[in-house]
Amino acid sequence: MKLGFIGLGIMGTPMAINLARAGHQLHVTTIGPVADELLSLGAVSVETAHQVTEASDIIFIMVPDTPQVEEVLFGENGCTKASLKGKTIVDMSSISPIETKRFARQVNELGGDYLDAPVSGGEIGAREGTLSIMVGGDEAVSEALLFASKAGADPVRVRQALMGGFASSRILEVHGERMIKRTFNPGFKIALHQKDLNLALQSAKALALNLPNTATCQELFNTCAANGGSQLDHSALVQALELMANHKLA
Fold it and tell me: Which of 9, 55, 101, 186 has an alpha carbon within 20 to 30 A of 240's alpha carbon?
């Protein structure tokens, strides 16, 4: 298939590599250098999202936050500057669900299809091809259970998706080991997790919904960041608890 990939960071690069290994024709663009391994597999590096879209039938976006997705889609050299007829845009970034609906409407109006497809599984899942992908299209937008229910999505489908990802026991399996071994090199940075939780809390406020555990988790990440840990893996959340307990896990 003719695939495009926009955003080749910690998650995007291994995801794109797996697509290239599967034999798909791949056009890519990113703000930094493209990995040599990806180029050696035949991926074509181009300058803009517009060029990626012109060359591809399905375009994957994996960038940090809502403003970056908006720029990729609607900026001066964005995806929507190309014809979208017959094309599908798959946003795998974790961004505002309210803005996602707006982006989808605009893409649909231009003749394209749009899927909201955030992932669970971190760098390990991206590298090993074991990510859980929570896909929202015309039928529903997938979020956490209560949030999904109030926002209008189907919580049963959300639960099924989350059971296959880090919301299941893989947290204990993978992050538990990192906490014990103190290996906090980032698979998914605390700073990005702060961004994701902030999106959830902002959207919850717009829905008049209280998410106390989400707010508590964000405060723990804030504690880590205040102590210089914003670039560590999100499993370093344990350090905030250790500070409060005056005791280290290991």
Answer: 9
Show the tokens assigned to 92: 């795998």
pLDDT digits (tens, 9 = 90+) for 77-112: 999 999 999 899 999 998 888 899 999 999 989 999
| Segment (H or E) for 115 | strand 113-116
- What is the per-residue pLDDT across 159-175, written as a single tens digit (0 to 9) for each? 555 555 554 545 555 66
b/e sequence 133-167, b meaning 16+ C-beta within 10 Å: bbbbeeebbbbbeebbeebebebebbeebbebbbb
Instruction: For the chain, give the longest Cα–Cα distance.
Output: 59
Residue 34 CA to residue 18 CA, distance in Å, equals: 14
Residue 76 phi/psi, 5-degree rounding, is -55, -35
Q: Answer whether 131's CB lies under 8 Å from 125's CB.
A: yes
* Local structure of 44: helix, strand or coil: strand
What's the length of the chain? 250
* Residue in 88, 134, 81, 136 with CA at minimum distance from that of residue 108: 88
CA distance 212 to 217: 9
- The DSSP secondary-structure symbol of 65 reads S
Instruction: Say which residues have a Cβ less than 8 Å from residue 67's Cβ, sequence separation at least 6.
Output: none
Q: Tens digits of per-residue pLDDT, 51-82?
A: 999 999 999 999 989 999 999 999 999 999 99
Assign 220 a pLDDT band (cuts: 50, 70, 90). Answer: confident
Q: What own/partner pairs with CB < 8 Å and gap ≥ 24 does 142-147 have?
A: 142/116, 142/118, 143/97, 143/200, 144/200, 146/209, 146/211, 147/200, 147/203, 147/204, 147/207, 147/209, 147/211
Per the model's pLDDT, the better-predicted residue between 92 and 186 turns out to be 92
Mean pLDDT computed over 187-212: 87
